[in-house]
Structure formats: C-alpha cells, structure tokens
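If your schedule permits, I should be very grateful for your opinion on a structural question. I have a record of one protein: its chain in single-letter code and its fold written as discrete structure tokens. Would you kindly read the sequence against the tokens and tell me how you understand this chain to fold? Thank you for your consideration; the sequence and its tokens are set out here.


***
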Amino acid sequence: MKKQKIILSWDIYVITNEELAFGRSNVDITRAALEGGAKIIQLRDKHSSSRKFYEDALQIRKLTRATNTTFIVNDRLDIALAADADGLHVGQNDLPASIARKYLGKSKILGISAINFEQSIEAAKQGADYLGVGPIFEARKTKPDADPPIGLDNLKVISDALDIPIVAIGGINIKNARDIIDAGANSVAVISAIVSTPNISNSTYEFIQAIKNE
C-alpha cells in the first residue's frame, strides 16, 4: 500500500549535537532552528550526564511548547517521560520498541531507526509511528561507524511498502534534500548540515525552502 504523506509539517527534522555546534548548546541549537521554521526537534546527546540531559530537555520542552512544535527525545525513555516530551526515538540497539511503547502509552510518538527493508517492516509491526531510515548517503561526520548508505532506490522500496511516515537520515544536504522527498520520504533529518553552520536559523529556513522546491 502506498504510504500517505501525513507528516506534512515535518519538512526538516532537526537533531541536536553539541559536539558539532562550535560551542552552541542543545538549547541554543533548538532556539535557532525553531526561529528558522523547524517544526520538530530531537534532543540527542550521547555524552552528557543524565542531569544535564534532563535540564536541557526541560528547557527545550518550554521552547517547543511556546512554538507549538514537536519534541522528541533520543534513546532516553526516562528523560522523555520526565520532561513530558511528545515522543521517543529508539535505535536497533536501544530499548526494545515494545517496552518503550508500554511506558510511553498510545498518546506519545514512537520513532524507530531502520537501516534496511527487513528492519523497516519489523519496526512498523512493532508499532512505530514513524521510521528513521538511513543512512541514505555517506554520513561519516556524525557517525564514523555508520552503516553503508542505502541510497534513494532502496528508500523508495521501503516507502512504497509501508503506510507509516518515513524520516530519512544520513548525508543529507540542501542539494539532495528534495530528491529524498521525491523518493518517498516525508521528512529529512539533519544534524551537521544544520548545527555546524554559522547561522542555524538561516540554514534551517534554506533547507525548508529547498524541500518545498521554492
């Protein structure tokens, strides 16, 4: 069944990463991305303490509530619940989706990462509200040990097979963002191409215009 594009407001899915942001914090990244028009933010922090992660989540929750945008926490179910985030994103090696759903309940969003067709089908069966599919292209800057890119053709195969939204990730930039949408993704997830730029707000806005082909 052909997937319906139901996440129309998530043109660009911004993921925080302080290590690539030249001194700017997760909260700084969020504020700037929202100013640029982002409708969803994922707080991702692999190295900070739980206390810092929680405090950042609280501040980002305030910012996203004030702008009526979606807030997703990466990996940490406890932080997502404690900060009342809109949802949680888990990878293949993180907390099992069934456990995450049990504690999130049906009202929260659950995103699951997938790197191939088989994982995508299984994630949909496990109750994912959306899939994070990739890497689409080479993504060594943010993940030195990243899996091989799957390319646009495989993205289209996955998109055509599923009826839940797809957020594509991996090696995405302004020049190829529209191609990814044309291949069937609902949204593109971006880290370095946003957070490593001098002006996060402008970069976010330019991405959105490129995705809309305007």
Notes: The beta strands are 12-15, 40-43, 70-74, 87-90, 109-114, 130-133, 166-169, 187-190. The chain has a mean pLDDT of 93. The chain is about 40% helix and 15% strand.
